[in-house]
From TrEMBL:
Protein name, as recorded: sucrose-phosphate synthase
Family named by the database record: Belongs to the glycosyltransferase 1 family.
Keyword annotations from UniProtKB, A to Z: Glycosyltransferase, Transferase
InterPro entries: Glyco_trans_1, SPS, Sucrose_synth_GT-B1
Domain Glycosyl transferase family: 241-412
Domain of life according to the entry: Bacteria
Amino acid sequence: MKVLFLNPQGNFDKNDSHLTEHPDFGGQLIYVKEVSKELANLNVSVDIVTRQINDPNWPEFSKKFDYFDTNKNPTIVRIPFGGDKFLNKEQLWLFLKEYVDNILSFYKDQKIDFITTHYADGGYSGVLLKSKLGLNFSFTGHSLGAQKMDKLNVSSENFEDLDKEYHFSQRIMAERLSMQYASKIIVSTSMERYEQYSHPLYVDVSEVENDSKYKVIPPGVNTEIFNDDMTDLDQETVAQIEKKLNKQQKPFIILSSRLDLKKNHISVVKAYANSKDLQDKANLGIFLRGIPDPFTDIHKLSEKERSILTPILEEIVKANIKDKVYFFDLKSQLALASAYKFFSKLKSVFVLPSFYEPFGLAPIEAGACGLAVVATKNGGPSEIFSDGSGVLIDPEDIQDIVEGLINGLNNYDYFSKKVKKRVLENYTWKSTARGYLEVIEEGIKLPKKNIEKVPSLDAKEIILDYLKNKKI
Ligand SMILES: O=c1ccn([C@@H]2O[C@H](COP(=O)(O)OP(=O)(O)O[C@H]3O[C@H](CO)[C@@H](O)[C@H](O)[C@H]3O)[C@@H](O)[C@H]2O)c(=O)[nH]1
Ligand SMILES: O=P(O)(O)OC[C@H]1O[C@](O)(CO)[C@@H](O)[C@@H]1O
């Protein structure tokens, strides 16, 4: 059985290169890698179909075929489209038709049984392929534009400007078409279905009440990497941390998300800066891959990343807490896991203060390594930690963040034990892959129907109408 994973953005290689160093390289890539690897273990032949990049700054992604390991299944198939240079995900919309045309010619002599699509750009590519071949496809959103728009306070007044940067017009239309034509919408939690897909921008096409349209398939944690085995620590990471800590034994508050506005790092820095109690109890650790010392490296960053990091550094200087805030540059998930384990020995807390988190792989990974978890109540974490195994906070209420962190630190033993149990019992990539296999086997049996005409990628009118009504 041949299954394609359509994932035009970011890119894949055996070293997870650039993971979290660039906003398009994060959880979705981990998710697609782990699910496709476990599907391959179930004897499915999997191709991750992504973009060929011939760019000296991104040398890892020029080979047409690549693999994670010697099994050579999944195969990473890199299709040329949009020229040679690396492009941010927001710049790919114009070239997705070329992506699909080149997929059609590459696979013309091969039998494709089913297609899974990831994020709006993958979903739209699935719609274009279905219009040509009639093939059924599943859609996994990973992150939907409507919630991002709402949390970035997009309004009728600033929409035009923000649309130039985030391309919400194309993204929302791509998501709507993906929801309409997918044979199955795969969600990580049931709240994702009922909360995210019932957004006014989707509710007319997402069939939220139609049980046969949705399948809840929780993501997993790679427990070969994220575990509480203290004998399996990356020594280079331990050395980096010990050198910086200089025998400090205080617990830490750990922030490890990629630099993206929606991750809302600044709220935790502000909470920490405003609370003497927190500063007495713990230090603040910020993991920024590829930025060893932000105060000196900030000029190397993109304008968008600089705009996120500058207020964080200013807050640290203004509150005079530079001696309590530590930055770490962790080059891999193995290094990340070792850092989590090191800090769990100091009874530390992992915090995810996103304005909105569709699911959140990072908090369950941190929990598997023994950290207590404090996470935003907006999105996936509210279901993941609905059993009280993690502390849920309002990411827009600084005082609530302070109290949540104090609760996590004061009750570290209770939360650390409870969250580890919760994660290991409910979140494994093997069970995620079994869920996908059920979707694939069901989808193969469905009738193949082509799509007459695929509408153009422009939801501007729908969005402006929504923004106008939202204001009233
Ligand atoms: O220094 C770091 C920090 C993070 N990570 C990894 O980056 C990933 C982050 O994933 P996640 O916490 O899920 O956040 P996003 O990158 O924002 O992922 C998007 O896609 C995910 C998969 O669908 C969803 O869980 C998220 O909610 C969605 O925002 C994790 O696997 C981490 O292990 C690193 O490798 N190194
Ligand atoms: O922040 P956004 O635009 O909703 O996109 C989520 C981003 O995070 C990722 O998980 C990074 O891998 C991708 O899904 C996407 O680039």
